Amino acid sequence: MNIFRLAGDMTHLLSILVLLLKINATRSCRGVSLKTQELYALVFVCRYLDLFTNFISMYNTIMKIIFLASTFTIIYWMRFHKVIRVTYDREQDTFRYQFLVLPCLVLALLLNSEFTVMEVLWTFSIYLEAVAILPQLVLLQRTNNIDNLTGNYVFLLGSYRALYILNWIYRFLTEPNYRQYLVWISGIVQTIIYIDFFYYYIKSWKNNEKLSLPA
Amino acid sequence: IPKEDGHDEL
User: Fold this and answer.
1) Fewer CB atoms inside 10 Å of the end CB: C or N, chain A?
2) Interface mutation vs chain B, best among A45, A46, A49, A54, most B CBs within 10 Å
């Protein structure tokens, strides 16, 4: 574990905490994409099947459980909480799951390092994570008045990905035989998806204006 | 990917 990896994981954790806090404190999930949260739930379920088969470290196990539990909590609130669910922008959050899930599944079946159920599902989760933020970005673009915390949530998620790239560079330079091309390419794609958002986020922060994404 | 160690990133 290097400092970039730890910082990346902590940023990821913080992003989820910001989202939980926003929804819980304001009793509103306005501007939050349920589709993105459900895609993340699918990502975590497929990736963390090894919770049952392979122990890596206490740290890994606890983080995996936190990511799963927090994502399912957010989904539960958005779908079933009697106050919160009313604030969900159902009509705006129209991205179709199948446009992301099916191509990622096909790609995982074709491009993986081992053709086993566990490994294909793990690879699927890597591909799906790369694009799971898209419904959230589309929803933000349609939201006129983006909540500060929602903006911060997406910014922290993007930062987590950027820190993981630094982690991979560090590991590549320090660990012999450390290579994972599929993960690197997906991670780079995932980070590129955020660049446009970063540009407007930093611009609004510099000018002390409210964040808004041009359509 | 060194599979025998499992995937150690989150």
Assistant:
1) C
2) A54
